[in-house]
Amino acid sequence: MRVDAFDFDLPKECIADRPVRPRDAARLLDVAPDGLHDRGVLDLPGLLRPGDVMVFNDTRVIPARLEGVRHGEQATARVEATLHQRLGPDTWAAFVKGAKKLRVGQTVEFADGFSARVEDKQDGGGVVFRFDRAGADLMAALEAHGRLPLPPYMGRPDDAQDRTDYQTVYAAHDGAVAAPTAGLHFTPRLFDALEARGVNRVTVTLHVGAGTFLPVKVDDTADHQMHTEVGELSPDVAATLNAARAAGGRIVCVGTTSLRLLESAAQDDGTVMPFSGGTDIFITPGTRFKATDMLMTNFHLPRSTLFMLVCALAGTDRMKAAYAHAIEGGYRFYSYGDSSLLRREDLPR
User: Fold this and answer.
1) All domains of the chain in start order, with CATH
2) Average pLDDT over residues 306-325
3) Does the predicted TM-score (pTM) go above 0.70?
4) How far is it between the farthest Cα atoms of the chain?
């Protein structure tokens, strides 16, 4: 499938570099079978039914961008690294600028008394670091010395406000290097309204990696390799989802991250199984969705795997029309932008 089929022009002024306040004041484009409807995130409860179940990703973003110094035999040089996958309590895979100059066995110092050894080198600028501490001690060092890896399209460095803004209110498990951005819109009052509507919710965990949001650089989707992300879906959550569908409820994924984990855990008959491990699922038009009925998601990059995913779910022509409508209507795009509600294309009206 040609990647350029998923390209579109997006004016720079459509890209949000700060969220609206309060979180639930964002706009919501309702991509419905009968057309496009301009709504707000607070309208969401009225668009769902009692018995529906929403699936949230409770991963927590860590300050995964580090700057350090490598000491060579004759000189020192700056190193910029973005951690993207935890491989062990003290070991992370990272994207590194200038990775070619790093050697296995070399030490990179990120702060006084905080360093990592280069354990391995991977394709595409990848490096495996083993840090000088593990677990909670490593997380504390990242909080002290790391920076939030805001997407480059925001055009600015992170600041203290992003430590709150770029985190869902229900984040629970450290490990993501990018936010599950559809969840940024939720607040306690929105949760209360959903509960009053009879909409249930469950949480899964998928630690979002930086590779998820990278533009696809090949010409054909068959040549693109997704980065692996680690996730978990518990037996209790699987049982809740299966019971809801058996009773006629719909499964509504909040964000493409929860959808990818759910589809990785589902069997061909739609039964959701417990899941723990890595997934590199790549969803493009033609994919048969096994468990997902609806998706709430922000607006995505041109030529990205995420725009391909929403086209697969709701139909390419419909999503191109929806994005054109959003651009014309002044919707705010990307991580800090507005949201949309999509239905699976083959669902009955």
Assistant:
1) 3-61+164-343 (3.40.1780.10), 65-146 (2.40.10.240)
2) 96
3) yes
4) 69
